Amino acid sequence: MSTKPDVFRTCVWPACLVGLLITGILSLDCNLLHFHLRKVTWQNLRLLSSTSSSFPVECLQETTAFELPQEILSHTQPVKRYIKEAFYEMSIQAFNIFSQHTFKTTWEKDYLKQIQIGLYQQLQYLEQCLEEEEKEKEDSKEMEQNGINWSGAMVSQLSNLELRRYFNRIDNFLKEKKYSHCAWEIIRVEIRRCFYYFQKFAVLLRKK
Description:
Layout: H1 7-10, H2 13-25, H3 33-50, H4 80-98, H5 109-140, H6 142-145, H7 147-176, H8 181-207
Helix pairs in contact: 2-5, 3-5, 3-8, 4-5, 4-7, 4-8
């Protein structure tokens, strides 16, 4: 499963165009990134809840445990950058899932496009803030001088690897179930759970 969204291949053009326009219009203050992430994630949660009125009873027997890696928030003092990197990884993987041309659902297409827009917009904002931080670190050489930060970077890499494995399990499940209606309903519930979990990341960004 790709770790970088191929926008020209996977994204519905109207969704991408709107996302690009929004990104170009808004000048993001990275100090307010937490506000944006919470807002967009909450919008996507609402959209995922609206795509289906209730979980189909006939799909209950097909449910499975995807094992969302909750240890990514287990370290006592997570560094802002590593929280952003985890959020970025989640946004990439969720974007790829919802950009597949294999939907066999009754979901409203407008809801799906809005979810794609929100995730793509998140990626653009996160890229901007991470790039700004990288430039600052290149000037100060913090990564080379601070052993704690280096150790934290290793934790971040492991956490992102676990996130990729988590979404790979989701992708494999869809393939095994031949992208059936039940499979997508199960994934809708699972990714909604993932989004709820990632709301905690935005709160931590505000507090740190």
